[in-house]
C-alpha cells in the first residue's frame, strides 16, 4: 500500500453521398508525427511478473498475456510468449501520471490488490524496436484478442468500481513493423469515422461515416489527457476531432480542426470489456455522445454530437 500511495502522489476519400465508391489513397499526408508517450513517476512492482498495489480488502486484479502474434490479432497456442515491460498507469489531477511496472516473464503479468479507480495498461515497446501492436479487438474473443492500440501500445480505460473485487484482462499481441493509428467503426453498420474529401485531396474539416478503406483520412490516434479523457487526432493532418462551437455557440456538428486544448476537443471514452468491445465517446465540454446520425431509422453518413441514449449509432469500435 505504501508503494502505491507514493505513486498516486508522485479518431473517405469517398465522394459524399457515395459511400460505396472506390477510394483514392492519400498521396501527400502531413509529415510523420507520433503520439507523445506518457511521462511521470514509474516505480518497480517487484522482481517478478506480479505486483501487489496493497488494497487487499477491496482490491481488484488487472492481468493479461503478451505474445508474438502472426498478424491475425488472435492469440493461439502455438504462438510464443513475449517478455516486455508492462505498466499500470493512473492519473491524479494534482500530480499527473504515475505507474507501477512489472515484466511479463513467461508472457504473463498481473497487478493485484488494485484500488478502485481508473487505469490504463501499457506494454512498453522500445523506440528502436522493429515491433508494433497487432490488430486491436480482433476475433471477438476477449480471452484471446489484443487489447492495446496505437504507437504507445496503450489500453482503453480500465475502470474498477468499489463494489468488490473485479478481474480485468488486458492482453497484447506484438508483430514486426511500425504501429499506426486505428479506424473507429460505428456499431450500427461498421462504417468508419472519416475526415471527408468530397473534392479529392486534401481532406476537408468535415467528418462523416463511410465504408472503410484504410486510408489516412480514416486513421485516428488517441492522445490521453487522463486515463479516461483523450484528444482524437486525425491521421491525415493530426488535427483534433472537435465538437464545433462557432462564435462560442454550441452546435451538433463535428469537425477536424487544429488542436487547441479546449474541452470541445476532448472526449471521455467509456469502455467496459465485460459488456463487449464497443466504446462510447462523450464530448468533455457538453457531455453529448458522438453519433452516427439516423434521422429516419437507418444510419446515414452524417456524424454529429447529440444527447446520449445508448443506441448502436452511439457505440464505436476501435479496430486495427
UniProtKB/TrEMBL annotation:
Q: Which domain of life is it from?
A: Bacteria
Q: Where in the cell is it found?
A: Secreted
One GO cellular component assignment for this chain's record is: extracellular region
Give GO BP annotations, semicolon-separated. carbohydrate metabolic process
The chain positions of domain Ricin B lectin read 178-319
Keywords of this entry: Secreted, Signal
Transmembrane spans = none
Which is an annotated Pfam family here? SdrD_B
Instruction: Provide the coiled-coil residue spans.
Output: none
Cleaved signal peptide residues: 1-23
- Could you tell me what this protein is called? Ricin B lectin domain-containing protein
What organism does this protein naturally occur in? Answer: Actinosynnema pretiosum
Amino acid at each position: 500500500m505504501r508503494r502505491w500511495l507514493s505513486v498516486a502522489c508522485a479518431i473517405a476519400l469517398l465522394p459524399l453521398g457515395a459511400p460505396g465508391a472506390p477510394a483514392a489513397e492519400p498521396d501527400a499526408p502531413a509529415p510523420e508525427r507520433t503520439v507523445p508517450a506518457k511521462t511521470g513517476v514509474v516505480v518497480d512492482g517487484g522482481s517478478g511478473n506480479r505486483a501487489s498495489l496493497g488494497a487487499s480488502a477491496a482490491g481488484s486484479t488487472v492481468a493479461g498475456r503478451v505474445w508474438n502474434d502472426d498478424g491475425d490479432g488472435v492469440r493461439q497456442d502455438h504462438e510464443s510468449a513475449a517478455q516486455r515491460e508492462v505498466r499500470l498507469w493512473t492519473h491524479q489531477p494534482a500530480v499527473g501520471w504515475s505507474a507501477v511496472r512489472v515484466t511479463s516473464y513467461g508472457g504473463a503479468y498481473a497487478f493485484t490488490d488494485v484500488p478502485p479507480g481508473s487505469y490504463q495498461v501499457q506494454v512498453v515497446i522500445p523506440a528502436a524496436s522493429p515491433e508494433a501492436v497487432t490488430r486491436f479487438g480482433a476475433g471477438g474473443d476477449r480471452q484471446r484478442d489484443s487489447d492495446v492500440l496505437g504507437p504507445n501500445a496503450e489500453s482503453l480505460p480500465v475502470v474498477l468500481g468499489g463494489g468488490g473485487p473485479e478481474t480485468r484482462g488486458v492482453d497484447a499481441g506484438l508483430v514486426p513493423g511500425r504501429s499506426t493509428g486505428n479506424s473507429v467503426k460505428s456499431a450500427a453498420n461498421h462504417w468508419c469515422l472519416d475526415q471527408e474529401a468530397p473534392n479529392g485531396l486534401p481532406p476537408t474539416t468535415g467528418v462523416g461515416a463511410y465504408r472503410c478503406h484504410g486510408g489516412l483520412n480514416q486513421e485516428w490516434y488517441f492522445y490521453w489527457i487522463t486515463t479516461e479523457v483523450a484528444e482524437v487526432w486525425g491521421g491525415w493532418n493530426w488535427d483534433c476531432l472537435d465538437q464545433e462551437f462557432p462564435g462560442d455557440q454550441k452546435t451538433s456538428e463535428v469537425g477536424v480542426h487544429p488542436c487547441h486544448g479546449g474541452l470541445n476537443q476532448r472526449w471521455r471514452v467509456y469502455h467496459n470489456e465485460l459488456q463487449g468491445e464497443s466504446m462510447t465517446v462523450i464530448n468533455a465540454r457538453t457531455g453529448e455522445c458522438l453519433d452516427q446520425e439516423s434521422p429516419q431509422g437507418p444510419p446515414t453518413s452524417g456524424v454529429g454530437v447529440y444527447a446520449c441514449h445508448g443506441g448502436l449509432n452511439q457505440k464505436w469500435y476501435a479496430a486495427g
